[in-house]
Design a protein that fits this description.
Layout: H1 5-17, H2 23-48, H3 56-61, H4 64-77, H5 79-85, H6 92-101, H7 106-130, H8 132-165
Helix pairs in contact: 1-2, 1-7, 1-8, 2-6, 2-7, 4-5, 4-6, 5-7
């Protein structure tokens, strides 16, 4: 599923809070998943170039105006722009795609992305772990809310059926 990686990292931190996972393996899994996921838009950009924008879902994710702005930024700032985009949700995918269209070598991209990910991943995992009690409280609230909504739906259905039978 196309889920923002920050959500996954916070969830990984919550698993640490619950004692269900260990720190190093969960960081490794998040790191591997992040770098593999980040490689996809770069590969699409390298392989297909701007022709990929003919595909509606890609064009929606990489809006032409945003693409031009990112192209200018990457041309001016180079590796620093690609590194900075790692920390800006919503810019990552278009930046990685743009880096691919501009022919950034895969190993250079991987190194830049890995350095950024090595900073970001542990930070979000620790945030998820530190927020564990609040996340657990939210989980309980949602569970109670779900029960209440379910009860209301059943009561409305029973009332509706009762009126139909009368």
């Amino acid at each position: 599923l196309p889920v923002p990686e920050e959500i996954t990292m916070l969830g990984a931190g919550f698993l640490l809070y619950q004692g269900e996972e260990e720190t190093l393996p969960i960081n490794g899994v998040c790191f591997d998943g992040t770098n593999n996921g980040d490689s996809e838009p770069l590969s699409v950009g390298r392989k297909n170039g701007l022709r990929a924008l003919r595909v509606r879902s890609i064009r929606r994710a990489v809006h032409p105006e945003r693409l031009r702005a990112i192209q200018r930024m990457v041309r001016r700032q180079g590796d620093r722009a690609v590194f900075a985009c790692r920390f800006v949700p919503g810019l990552r995918l278009p930046a990685w795609f743009t880096a691919g269209t501009l022919g950034m070598p895969y190993l250079r991209f991987l190194l830049i992305d890995a350095i950024g990910a090595a900073i970001m991943i542990p930070a979000f995992i620790l945030l998820g772990r530190a927020s564990g009690e609040k996340i657990a409280e939210l989980e309980r609230t949602v569970e109670h809310f779900t029960l209440i909504v379910g009860f209301i739906a059943l009561a409305l259905a029973a009332t509706f059926i009762g009126h139909l039978m009368l």
